[in-house]
Amino acid sequence: MKPSSSSSSLPPSSPSSSSPPLVPPSSSSSQHWIYDVFLSFRGEDTRRTFTDHLYVALDRAGVRTFRDAEGLRRGENIARELLRIIQGCRISVIIFSDKYADSRWCLDELEEIMKCRIKLRQLVFPIFYHVDPSDVRNQTGIFAHAFQKHEAEKTTRWGDKFPEKSQYGTEKIARWRAALKGAADLAGFDIADRHEAEFINNIVEEICRQLTSTYLNVAVYPVAIDSRVEDISKCLGVGFDDAVRMVGIWGMGGIGKTTVAKAIYNKFYHDFDSKSFLADVRETAKDSNGKTTLQERLLSDILRPTKIVVDDVSRGVNVIKERLGSKKVLVIVDDVDDVDQLNALAIHRDSFGQGSRIIITTRDRHLLELLEVDTIHLTQKMNEEEALELFTCHAFQNRCPNEDYTELLRRVVSYCGGLPLALEVLGSFLSKRSIGEWKSTLKKLKKLPHVKIQSKLRISFDSLDEFQRNIFLHICCFFIGMDKNYVIQILEGCGLFAEIEFSVLLQRCLVTVNEKNKLMMHDLLRDMGREVVREESPNRPERRSRLWQQEDVIDVMTDKSVSIPGQIKTSIYISSLMLIILLQFHILVCVIQSVPSSTSSSWL
After folding, report:
1. Closest CA relative to residue 149, chosen from 104, 94, 98
2. Which of 57, 67, 174, 342 could link 347 by a cystine bridge, Cβ 3.0 to 4.6 Å?
3. 464: helix, coil or strand?
4. Active-site residue, selected from the candidate residues 70, 76, 109, 111
5. Whole-angstrom Cα distance, residue 307 to residue 300?
6. Residue 183 and residue 136: Cα distance in Å, rounded?
């Protein structure tokens, strides 16, 4: 296969500066394609020859191809059904032949195809069938004759009597010219003096290769994703420079980091010849050969169809640098929780070629700071309107909730606190259930978090060390809404390393500090922490390390069978007020003991 003179070899690279800028689609991640390929061609030129041979070859390869546009052409304008079909094809193949530009319908199809390339990220392959690509691009040669006819026809039909229609005709011809130039600027296939059978095989192979590189499934209901993708897209600056840019997507578990990363991958998928989405890095890396598995996945994605086997992590790092160092790649490393995982994948600027874009999703901001990424994007929770829409989609399979459920719906959405994971899990769980079951579920959630939500959020807790876990649980049970510095002072007095551990908890999105320096935490994280404490002894509160609910405190204090030692035990906390009083008393005793005996009486 020889590409057209306008570009280098396939697959198509980023558009040249003369090409129209690519605008992000609103629904590329959820596009349902009707056909794989749409063939746009001039029937009298190629229907019974080249186009027919290409169609048969595609059909044999299992490619769903639409070629009967001529039967849907009606009157002056492109038919509605034909528009729907063009918009429903993943790839459009334009067969430029001698008389292609003679046809108004062909030019209308071309105009719509180029719109779909921009709006729907549709792939477009031009085929130059015994025509010069420069004639198509500049409307010279035989294509100049075609446009002379269109100009003459416009003048003959409308002249000076219908200036508005004449102006419309002028604008339409200008759009046709722009569409021809845009299509000819793309990487394509020029038959020149090649054998037709071999030429068609090359086209079919490339189309099949593109079709096997599928989009990622983003979400069942992609609510409020586009705005988040747009924010990160600005940071990525794809196509703006040749620098290697790295962007971190950071946030608590279940906030939608992976979902946004998949949508970004789909959006920029066709701007990179080489790309890889490495999912579930944290889980994969746990296996004994996990890191080499990740290395092989990265290399195979980028170098496909070549398969590379890696038997050693250190060797794998070198192979990645050697083989990918000159390639412009899009790499997304999803759910990282250890810097060793990034090092094993050689995630550094000098490991990839100019123009590469690297995206890392993680719950730990510190990893992104170590990597010195260009931008750290904090994934925000959904606002009330977005949360209602997502929950309604899962609970009612539409965006119009049953009015009888309105109040209960708002209560559940409020409980979820804008966390997409919780909205999806509870929405699906409550779908098709009665009002009574909804009310019962809400009562249960006050006592016990949903297990699926709990397990996802607990991943962050389980990654903490003993000191960090203790401080996190203290905050869950006692210190939410209190001044951060005051809490640090209390915990430091308890022998806990509060200053550094608070930093870790903040970096891992387990706690936040508001503008008044108050410690805050997502309600579902708070509930997860308290459930960890409850699980210590579900039926015997006195055996738990912390008590915060009034009824549990009263039960323990009034139960004669329970003995409470006289000395302070920091392993058991009766209430937040008692904790503060006891700890401050402990600190005061330490201070008094440090004062010389000769001055302690007067000081007191």
Report:
1. 104
2. 342
3. coil
4. 109
5. 5
6. 9
Distance CA 471, CA 501 (A): 8
Convert the pLDDT of each residue in 461-503 to its tens digit.
999 999 999 999 999 999 999 999 999 988 888 888 889 999 9
Rounded to an integer, what distance in angstroms lies between the CA atom of residue 545 and that of residue 519? 21
Question: Mind spelling out the 3-state secondary structure of 171-189?
Answer: HHHHHHHHHHHHHHCCCCE
- Please state whether 141 falls in left (phi above 0), alpha (psi between -120 and 50) or beta: left
State how beta strands 329-336 and 189-190 pair. Answer: unpaired
Token pair 């001039």 in the structure block, residue: 42
Beta bridge partners of 378: 250
Indicate the pLDDT class of residue 272, thresholds 50, 70 and 90: confident
| Cβ pair 246, 367 in contact under 8 A | no
Element (H, E) at 519: strand 519-520
Which pLDDT score is estimated for 31? 57
Give buried/exposed letters for 28-63 (b at 16+ CB in 10 A, else e): bbbeebebbbbbbbbbebbbeebbeebbebbeeeeb
> Long-range contact list for 409-418, CB < 8 A, 24+ apart?
411/442, 412/438, 412/441, 412/442, 413/384, 413/387, 413/388, 415/442, 415/445, 415/523, 416/387, 416/391, 416/524, 417/381, 417/522, 417/523, 417/524, 418/381, 418/382, 418/383, 418/384, 418/386, 418/387
Please state, in angstroms and rounded to a whole number, the distance separating the CA atoms of residues 288 and 31: 38
Pairing of strands 245-250, 274-278: unpaired
H or E element, residue 159: none
* Nearest-angstrom CA–CA distance, 37 and 168: 31
Alpha-carbon distance of 548 to 65, in angstroms, equals: 65
**Mean pLDDT over residues 554-559, rounded?**
75
Cα distance between residue 46 and residue 399, in whole Å: 47
Q: How high is the pLDDT of residue 496?
A: 86
The residue with tokens 């909804």 is: 438
Q: Give just the sign of the alpha carbon dihedral 533, 539, 540, 543.
A: negative
The reply to whether omega before 305 is within 30° of 0 (cis) is yes
Top-confidence range, 1-5, 167-171, 440-444: 440-444
Taking each helix axis from N to C end, the angle separating 435-447 and 420-430, rounded to the nearest 10 degrees, works out to 140
Catalytic (active site) residue 296: no
CA angle 236–239–244, rounded 5-degree value? 55
C-alpha span between 551 and 536 (Å, rounded): 18
Query: Is the overall model pTM greater than 0.85, yes or no?
Result: no
The residues, any chain, with a CB within 8 Å of residue 258's CB and separated by 6 or more, are 279, 334, 335, 361
Sheet holding 245-250, edge to edge: 274-278, 329-336, 357-362, 245-250, 375-378
